[in-house]
Design goal:
Strand content: 35-45%
Organism: Robertmurraya yapensis
Protein name: DUF2500 domain-containing protein
CATH class of the largest domain: Mainly Beta
Strand order of the largest sheet: 3-2-1-4-5
Shape: elongated
CATH topology of the largest domain: OB fold (Dihydrolipoamide Acetyltransferase, E2P)
Radius of gyration: 23 Å
Distance between the termini: 85 Å
Order of helices and strands: HEEEHEE
Number of domains: 2
Length: 126
């Protein structure tokens, strides 16, 4: 019985320490990833290109016992045929409609603005 108690007093602090290191490591990893993404976006040029809204989606995170949050994403197709998915604010998500054609402004992976031209196909845009 005493051997088991000694084992528990020696093992439990090690397990708690490992869990603490994993949690702190996860927090640091997330913070470093966010800072590097922010820095990369700031060092990228601001671009404005002709684009068409081809898809929209929302991702829900949280919920259950905690508050739920929505992340909104819009996929744009530029005139070269490449597609870019950017996270947008809820107000911008509500204002964009699939099929809209206009000028997309972005910086790295950061959405800046989309101004609709009123035209519905590529050939009508000057």
């Amino acid at each position: 019985m005493f051997m088991f108690e000694d084992f528990m007093f020696q093992t439990i602090p090690i397990i708690v320490g490992i869990i603490f290191i994993i949690v702190i490591g996860g927090i640091l990893f997330t913070a470093i990833r966010g800072i590097s993404r922010w820095s990369k976006n700031n060092n990228s040029p601001e671009l404005t290109v002709r684009a068409k809204v081809v898809a929209k989606r929302a991702a829900v995170r949280g919920g259950g016992e905690t508050r739920a949050y929505n992340d909104y994403f819009v996929t744009f197709e530029v005139d070269s045929g490449d597609r870019i998915e950017l996270e947008v604010k809820d107000i911008d998500y509500g204002m964009l409609v699939e099929g809209d054609v206009g000028e997309l402004s972005f910086q790295g992976s950061r959405y800046l603005a989309f101004s609709r031209t009123g035209k519905k196909n590529w050939n009508e845009i000057v």
